[in-house]
Amino acid sequence: MRVVSGIQTTGNLHLGNYLGAIRQWVAMQDQGECLFFLADLHALTGNVSPQELANSTIEMAATLMASGIDDRAILFNQARVPAHAELCWILQGTARMGWLNRMTQWKDKAGKNREGASVGLFTYPVLQAADVLVYKATHVPVGEDQKQHLELARDVATKFNTDFEVDLFPLPEPLISKAAPRIMSLRDGSAKMSKSDPSDMSRINLIDDDDTIATKIRKSKSDADLLPDSFDALAERPEAKNLVTIYAALAEREPQSVVDEFAGKGFGAFKPALADLAVSVLAPVRDRLTRLLDDRAAVGAQLAKGAARANALAAPTLKAAQEAVGLQV
Fold first, then answer.
1. What's the per-residue H, E or C state across 56-115?
2. Contact partners, residue 68, CB within 8 Å, separation at least 6
3. 158/27 Cα distance (integer angstroms)
4. pLDDT of the chain, 329 residues: tens digit per residue
5. Distance from chain centroid for Cα 128
6. Which residues are catalytic?
7. Could you tell me which residues are beta bridge partners of residue 3?
8. Under 8 Å between Cβ of 210 and 54
9. Residues 6, 131: contact at Cβ < 8 Å?
10. How many whole angstroms separate alpha carbon 20 and alpha carbon 7?
11. Separation CA 3–CA 19 (nearest Å)
């Protein structure tokens, strides 16, 4: 089992990232060989300043390390492993325009300004395919919004293997943890928690102090009704459902057990309990993160160490792909 996953180096990581991806990654370190990368090449498809990109790469690496990613996994930034970009170019001869045109994230991000969007934004899924195929990944942790991109990676792998009559790329399987539900905005239960939301009150950043975490939870949107005795009864109460979901995820419990405990109580009682729980889980992560950011050179050295390990794994796959298409003579 070889697990590969990446995260973009833009903005602060938040509770949704932690519960939806990072905590899964930490657990996966004991389940198989894991490569986790900071997708700084992907970040170039948007508007980002060079200094911001450099700082974000170190800060996000420190956040992952503070959360529990260690030498059991290979942690690196994508740009330090040139095989990602080289294989991407080879695979652009295999991927098809029609496939990329159907990508819903391309449609959403480009909007009505497709002519003004970067080429990189359009071919983003091909680089994602290269990211996982260069390591012959067997499993890729993905959210629901990324499943289509993994399907494209499988299509690219299948077509490449068929076109060049090789058995080079395995078809990676998605890993979608049932214990990592989608975490929604604290201000709008119908919108995903996001670092791009202009309101900082919509999310809990992993760098937030205890008082800020408690304040954001206290002021989070809820409703006036009492909590029911069934989690399913919250289906039409998105903000209430989100807060219960967050509690369950932080406590590593089933949502039904949370409503069993708080049934008949209002959010005046529930929110303080949620705030205490969030602080108890996130404060140690924040404290470790603060210490790591005091020595950014050490974090950079850890990324370089991971990149050396990743380069060694990627090199044979890239060479085999080059040979398959006739680039090795």
1. HHHHHHHHHHHHCCCCCCEEEEHHHCCHHHHHHHHHCCCCCHHHHHCCHHHHHHHCCCHH
2. 23, 26, 29
3. 30
4. 999 999 888 767 899 989 988 888 898 998 889 999 999 999 898 888 899 899 999 999 999 999 999 999 999 999 999 999 999 999 999 999 999 988 887 887 777 778 888 888 899 999 999 999 999 999 998 766 678 889 999 999 999 999 999 999 999 998 876 656 789 999 999 999 998 899 999 999 999 999 999 999 999 999 999 999 999 999 999 999 999 999 999 999 999 999 999 999 999 999 999 999 999 999 999 999 999 999 999 999 999 999 999 999 999 999 999 999 999 76
5. 13
6. 109, 192, 195
7. 34, 139
8. no
9. yes
10. 12
11. 18
C-alpha distance across the termini of the chain, in Å: 33
Is the pTM higher than 0.85?
yes
Q: Which amino acid is at 49?
A: S
Tokens of 71: 């030498």
d(C-alpha 324, C-alpha 161), whole Å = 9
Displacement of CA 189 from its chain's centroid (Å): 20
Asked if 242 and 183 count as a contact pair (C-beta separation under 8 A), the reply is yes
Please name which of 65, 68, 63, 61 lies closest in space to residue 26, comparing C-alpha atoms. 68
Distance CA 227, CA 18 (A): 26
> How many residues does this entry show for the chain?
329
Quick check: 23 and 180 in contact, CB under 8 A?
Answer: yes
One-letter amino acid of 146: Q
Rounded distance between C-alpha atoms, residue 203 and residue 197, angstroms: 8
Q: What are the b/e assignments for 131-166, b being 16+ CB within 10 Å?
A: bbbbbbbbbbbbeeebebbbbbbbbbbebbbeeeee
Token reading at 126: 């091909």
Distance of CA 137 to the CA centre of its chain: 16
- Alpha helices in the chain, H assignment, sequence order: 15-17, 23-28, 40-43, 50-67, 83-91, 97-101, 104-110, 119-133, 147-163, 210-218, 238-251, 255-262, 267-293, 296-325
The residues facing 173 across adjacent strands are 139
